[in-house]
Amino acid sequence: MNPRKELLEHIPNLRAFAMSLCGSPDRADDLVQEALVKAWSKLDSFEEGTNMRAWLFTILRNGFYSELRKRRREVEDADGAMAAQLATHPAQSGHMDFKDFRVALEQLPADQREALILIGASGMSYDEAAEICECAVGTVKSRVNRARQKLAEILAVESVAEFGPDETSQPIVTPSSTTRSVA
Question: Per the database record, which ranges form the RNA polymerase sigma-70 region domain (predicted)?
């Protein structure tokens, strides 16, 4: 029998199987449609003489369980309340700040830059950094401290409060205490 015709003959059985898996007629129709699309696109890999029905049921079943696993990781947000709380800093200023930081980092003496990168960026302990730099732990701590002070000077950073959103983006990323309703 022609594989394309045989594929179509199994639709009622696929729908019944999909109904037994999900219990919803609409969802069952979607599952069948997804399985048929996958099967149709892979029809050239189907081996004639093998069980078409089993092949189709396997595709449908795998699709169902893949979606089930995916849904377990998702959070429903029908009214958009969770999405409304999400905000990010504008990418442009972050990109420019990073460029400024890289330029400032290059201005540090090599030993201070190395110590700062090992501790700050690589997440190593002072002991590990001291071993790599072949110096005392106190020397590494001193280099990191001097590097931080020099970076703050170069970047004109006077306090920790200067990090994060500026006055323009602060209202965007900080949730408002009042909620406006849309009529």
Answer: 9-73
